[in-house]
Design goal:
The chain is of the alpha/beta class. The chain is built from 13 helices and 31 strands. 28% of the residues lie in helices and 23% in strands. Helix 7 runs parallel beside helix 8. It starts with a strand and ends with a strand.
């Protein structure tokens, strides 16, 4: 099994114009630096104005240079994922010779793009250095498609033109296929016409824990769509952030990409750039400093992180491990990737995606192996389905959820009202055992800034009388008010109308909270709510669902990820915080630590801020 550990590549001196400023010696020197730290793949780009004629024909001198480039890559054992259309790059839209008016999705533009692309593929499909083909770099920044269908036609036309010639190499689009993308870039809408989902992620968050866990949520989201995933771009500039912080971030994300089952990760980018007056660096100074090498090719700390990671990869046989089964799933509302008439949530897709990532963050910090499930997909593969503060689902989905519960599953739903004139479901009583009890015309119960939930009976490992405290923000959130029919109130906020309800349905349970925990924590921004109480609540949901939590860590902010082998597990410990932590790592009774002369359970482990540690743990 090959895990592609790589960088996005432009040379440090000739940068975006390297095909016209051709310097094989510079390229060879760069490849030698890459190989020093164990890089085995790169994503690079053809600048079309330097490589194509106006009718889409490949220029002969560029063809010769591509051959030289691939020969150098082969010499250093580096696979090349070659991008055809640029298109957009680093803050500028560059000319496409065969499409001067950027009519990207027109039949004429597609035919000319095919002409260029197929010539490149025909000439180099048998070169040993080719790892894959990439249609563009973020073509949707050059021109947004008018619809999902228009974009799918563009992708499908170019994808099949390549596959008709070369069925041996991966093909993807070079744009951000992600939980946070527009519908035309959602993986659900690209199945069958890309060989891997290609997130380009530059996320920002005041909550450092949720920040890197959001990257993981995107990787799991793409993987759960049934498409292999390669994290095609991620990184930060060291003109804005410290080199040490960049390194810690890259360390976390590389391990996340591995333990969440992707086929690789390409950092943006290889090196800083020297020629600051070149476009687009002239007006985009941050673009000069994303490199893991400085412009003099000395190493930043992140290059050492990459070297350590590649050494680790060489020390294990990845083919002997598999991802653990996901028995819990976060439901993905259909409006996230489909359009429905007069559904206002289509304008709130980014907020909904954040709620999904927030639920994922809590679940993972609780030790739950969680994934995502679409409304139209099969629920019976799971024991627990989470619906985190989502405004509505399709009416047909609620009946399927009731069937899921009656057959032994557990559904958890926390309610949040984002606007007027809508309802999450019509089946409150049938599924949850409650009736809505708001006054006609009102907007919902306004949540106080701080909430303390007291449990009135045992729930999982939460004892009667235990309390969970969540601190909100100044943002006003609204929720439903309910009156129980046959549901039990298992927890409440004293002197308020905020409760957690439990309803027995057939062989399973429906858990309803009109306290939107995920929405509250999301808007608190600072990660102060990752106390063991909210994690214990999620863990108790898993316990009630008969889900085994094999590994977990304390304190909050430390995540345990793992892959299962026949006789041992490969276990990663990720400190998502910017604080040094002394963590307690809980692992199954009877398992033993390999290569560590410690038998304590929990294992006490000291972790630097934004850092990782990998263990091998032998099974019983």
């Amino acid at each position: 099994m090959t895990f592609y550990i790589g960088v996005n590549y432009w040379p440090e001196v000739s940068n975006i114009k390297f095909w016209s400023r051709w310097n094989p010696e510079e390229i060879e020197n760069d490849f030698a630096k890459m190989r020093e730290i164990g890089i085995n793949a790169i994503r690079t780009f053809l600048l079309d104005e330097d490589c194509a004629y106006n009718d889409g024909r490949l220029k002969e001198d560029c063809k010769i240079k591509i051959k030289q480039f691939l020969d150098i890559a082969e010499k250093y054992g580096i696979k090349v994922f070659l991008t055809f259309i640029v298109g957009h790059m680093s803050g500028k839209n560059w000319p496409i010779p065969w499409d001067p008016n950027n009519e990207i999705y027109s039949s004429k533009a597609i035919e000319n793009a095919k002409k260029f692309i197929t010539q490149v593929v025909e000439n180099f499909k048998n070169h040993k250095a080719i790892g894959g083909w990439i249609l563009s770099n973020e073509i949707t920044l050059v021109k947004k498609p008018s619809s999902v269908e228009e974009f799918k036609l563009w992708v499908s036309s170019l994808y099949h033109a390549i596959k008709d010639i070369d069925r041996d190499h991966l093909v993807s689009i070079g744009d951000s296929v992600s939980l946070y993308s527009q519908p035309y870039l959602k993986p659900e809408n690209l199945r069958g016409i890309i060989d891997y989902a290609s997130p380009h992620l530059y996320r920002y968050d005041e909550d450092p824990i949720r920040h890197t866990l959001t990257y993981e949520s995107v990787l799991e989201y793409c993987r759960s769509s049934g498409i292999p995933t390669l994290l095609e771009e991620f990184g930060y500039p060291t003109s804005l952030y410290s080199e040490e912080s960049q390194a810690g971030f890259i360390d976390i994300i590389l391990h996340s990409a591995l333990f969440y089952g992707t086929i690789g990760a390409f950092i943006w980018c290889f090196s800083d750039f020297k020629n600051e007056s070149d476009e687009p660096y002239l007006w985009e100074p941050h673009e000069l400093t994303f490199g893991i090498f400085r412009k003099d090719l000395s190493r930043k700390p992140s290059a050492n992180v990459v070297e350590d990671f590649t050494k680790f990869l060489k020390s294990v046989k990845l083919e002997e491990y598999r991802l653990p089964k996901r028995e819990a799933a976060i439901i993905v509302p259909s409006f996230l990737y489909k359009d429905f008439p007069f559904v206002g949530e289509v304008n709130m897709r980014d907020d909904i995606a954040k709620l999904l990532s927030q639920s994922f963050t809590i679940a993972r910090l609780s030790g739950i192996n969680v994934t995502f499930v679409r409304e139209e997909e099969e629920f019976s593969n799971y024991k627990l389905i989470l619906i985190p503060s989502i405004s509505r689902l399709l009416t047909s989905t609620w009946k399927r959820l009731l069937d899921f519960v009656e057959n032994g599953g557990v559904v958890y739903y926390s309610t949040l009202i984002p606007g007027y004139h809508m309802s999450a479901t019509h089946m409150w009583e049938e599924l949850f055992g409650v009736k809505p009890n708001l006054n006609a015309g009102g907007g919902g119960l306004i949540l106080p800034e701080d909430i303390e939930v007291e449990f009135l009976e045992r729930f999982g490992s939460i004892k009667m009388g235990e309390k969970i405290r969540v601190e909100g923000s100044s943002i006003s959130l609204k929720t439903y008010r309910f009156k129980e029919v046959d549901a039990k109130v298992i927890a409440h906020v004293p002197s308020h109308e905020f409760n957690i309800y439990l309803a027995k349905r057939g062989k399973g349970f429906a858990v309803l909270s009109n306290i939107p925990f995920e929405g509250i924590i999301l808007t608190s921004m600072e990660g102060k709510n990752y106390n063991m109480g909210i994690l214990k609540f999620y863990r108790s949901l898993a316990e009630v669902s008969n889900i085994e939590i094999k590994y977990f860590a304390e304190p909050a902010g430390v995540e345990v990820v793992y892959m299962e082998g026949e006789n041992e597990d490969l276990v990663g410990i990720l400190n998502h915080t910017f604080e040094d932590k002394e963590a307690l790592i809980y692992y199954p009774s009877g398992y033993t630590l390999i290569d560590v002369d410690i038998k304590d359970n929990p294992l006490r482990l000291k972790l630097k801020e934004k850092s990782t540690h990998v263990l091998r743990i032998k099974k019983q």
